[in-house]
Amino acid sequence: MIVELAADHRELEALFEQIELQPVDHPRRRELADRLTAELVRHCIAEELHFYPTVRKHVLHDAALADKGLADHARAEQMRKGLEDLSVDDLLFNDTIAKLKFEVASHVREEEHELFPKLAATLPPEKLDELSRMVRRARETAPTRPHPLLPNTLPAHRTPRSRNRFGGPGTRSAPHHHPLTPDMACRPSRTRRSTECQPSKGPCRWPARPAG
């Protein structure tokens, strides 16, 4: 599972880099942003269905980090949804891409530097392999758009136990990203056609997804 999720991280970083290499206002930026959105949705769904429940079950004293990771996902989903309705010549387009890249980079660092090593030290290889298959299956069957019926707050049992930097104004809880299953496929957007980090500091500890 760790290798699968780390490979997702590298793909997301590569997409951010490709977007930055395009000239400002170039239509290619919109195409790449749609691909980025799709990959983020797949990745978040796979993590919420399998990674964070595993952390809660097997990694002691890290439930708060799992809660924060879910809040990170909620914040990223709100930004992705906003990005869908922006054209490349809108000043908010580049601003939203930059903010999303920063948030994803921070989230990736916490997972790869804290949670991944602890999970790797806790679970046997055969269990990690089983979870890898489950993650791949979740990515393959996941919707590729943010959920259109997203509630404004986390349910009570999912509210982060510690304050996180993605919370809304005042003490309002961060919006929640629902883990979606195939039978919860999202409805088409009424405003756009359907389509789907700052890289971690230091060398990457986790390799790309193996071929096959």
Question: Can you walk me through this structure?
Answer:
With 212 residues, the chain is mostly helical. It contains five helices and no strands. It has helices at residues 2-21, 27-58, 63-84, 91-122, 125-141. Helix 2 runs antiparallel to helix 3 (63-84), helix 2 (27-58) runs antiparallel to helix 5 and helix 3 packs antiparallel against helix 4. The longest helix has 32 residues, at 27-58. The two termini are 15 Å apart.
Order of helices and strands: HHHHH
Radius of gyration: 17 Å
Structural class by secondary-structure content: mainly alpha
Mean pLDDT: 74
Largest beta-sheet characterization: none
Low-confidence stretches: 147-207
In total, the number of strands is 0
Specify the number of helices: 5
